[in-house]
C-alpha cells in the first residue's frame, strides 16, 4: 500500500525565516510526486510534479526536491501570503490512465509578519 | 473556464437521510476523482472515472456510497443512508493528464 508521511504537522515562521517541509513516501514504483497548496475553505491547488531522484523545480519562493525516499519543499524568505497547508502526494506507476493520487495529511504553515 | 464546480457548498442532514453531491468537471478533462477530507485521515481517494467509466472504487467505504458519471460533464456521489461518521469535506477533481484540478468541496454534516 502506498504511504505518504509529512512533517512537521504544523510550522510557524516569522516573515523572511526560511525553512523546509518534509514528505517521506513508500510506493510500488513512483510515477510522480506532487506538491499542492490548500487554502482554508478551498480545494488543493497544484504546485509541482517531480518524476525522478535529483529533480528540482522552483516557483517564486518555493523549491521542491526529490530523492528515492523523500521530497522537500524549501521555502525561502516566506511572506504571510505563503501561509497555507502544503500537501504532498504520490502516483504509483502500476496501472494505466490517470490513477488517483495518495496524499499525505499535510503541513499547516503559518507565516507571521 | 470556471473550473470544477461542486454543489452544494454546504449540506446539513440528519442521520438516515439520503445525500447527493454533484460535480461538473472542467470541459475536455477525461478523468474525474472523488476525494474525502477529514482531520484524522486527510484526503482519501474514494473513486475515479476515466472517460466516464469507473476505474477504481476500492476507496468507497461501504455499500452506502455510490457514484455515477452519466456523461462527460456531470458526476454524482450519493450516500444512502447517511451516518454521522460520513461528516467530512468531499472534493471532486478532474484532469487531462496528471495534474488534478479540484473544486471547492462540499462540507457535509450529518447530525
Architecture overview:
The complex is a heterodimer of chains A (113) and B (111). By secondary structure, chain A is mainly β. Helix content of chain A is 0%, strand content 58%. Chain A contains no helices and eleven strands. Chain A has strands at 3-7, 10-14, 19-26, 30-38, 45-50, 56-59, 62-66, 70-75, 84-92, 102-103, 107-112. In chain A, a hairpin with a 2-residue loop joins β6 and β7. The model of chain A has no long low-confidence stretch (mean pLDDT 93). Chain B contains no helices and eleven strands. In chain B, strands 2, 4, 5, 6, 9, 10 and 11 form a seven-stranded mixed sheet that branches. Chain B has a four-stranded antiparallel sheet with strand order 1-3-8-7, with no helix packed on it. Chain B is globular, with a radius of gyration of 13 Å. The N and C termini of chain B lie far apart (36 Å). The mean pLDDT of chain B is 95. Classes of the chains: A mainly beta (113), B mainly beta (111). At the A-B interface, β4, β5, β9 and β10 of A face β4, β5, β9 and β10 of B.
Q: What is the fold's blueprint, element by element?
A:
The complex is a heterodimer of chains A (113) and B (111).
Chain A: E1 3-7, E2 10-14, E3 19-26, E4 30-38, E5 45-50, E6 56-59, E7 62-66, E8 70-75, E9 84-92, E10 102-103, E11 107-112
Parallel strand pairs in A: 2-11
Antiparallel strand pairs in A: 1-3, 3-8, 4-5, 4-9, 6-7, 7-8, 9-10, 9-11
Chain B: E1 5-7, E2 10-13, E3 19-24, E4 31-38, E5 42-50, E6 53-56, E7 65-71, E8 74-79, E9 88-95, E10 101-102, E11 106-110
